[in-house]
Amino acid sequence: MGVKLSSTANSPKDAICKVIGMAGHSSDKNQCSFCCVTKDEINAVDLDHICPRNTHGLRKQAIEWKNAVTLADRKAIFQTYGVRYSVLYELPYFDPLSNAAVEPMHNIFLGLLQHHGQNIFGLKISAQNSEYQTKRRCSQPRGRKTDVLGDENEDESADQESLYAPDCQIPTDLNPLGARFSGKAENLQRLQDVNQEI
């Protein structure tokens, strides 16, 4: 039997923020669940000037929101602190900073791995070249060698063969997953080194 879900949450970070009574990442003043950085200070890298949030302060602000008499007071408290009341604050052991983590799929696979793949290994294609490069790679006759960076190369030497893919998205020695590269060829060597370490 089980439960049939018609859809799932598009943004788990927003969902967990609503459950624990905190403002989400789209808030102007209180976008972070762990510190008091505003959108104006988002590029700050000096950790000495970043004020971390604490559980006691969050619980006190949530109770203050709950005890507010008018809707205007509640809105003002939420705008100031980015916290509203949640029934979870009634649990004495509940810590909103450590008990409400984003699940690994969104935090690791879509965050860290995406950053490493696109920015470090050069796996992304610029928006203006992506359609052209995709059509060019996939429209070539089967078996014709194409440089991973998109240029044709007539050099048939054996040591260069691993840098070419005979068809669209076919794995090679340096590119076992068949990913399309838009970066420098040296990124392929880094990818091979990482694959060997794993």
From TrEMBL:
<feature type="compositionally biased region" description="Acidic residues">
    <location>
        <begin position="149"/>
        <end position="159"/>
    </location>
</feature>
<protein>
    <submittedName>
        <fullName>Uncharacterized protein</fullName>
    </submittedName>
</protein>
<feature type="region of interest" description="Disordered">
    <location>
        <begin position="132"/>
        <end position="168"/>
    </location>
</feature>
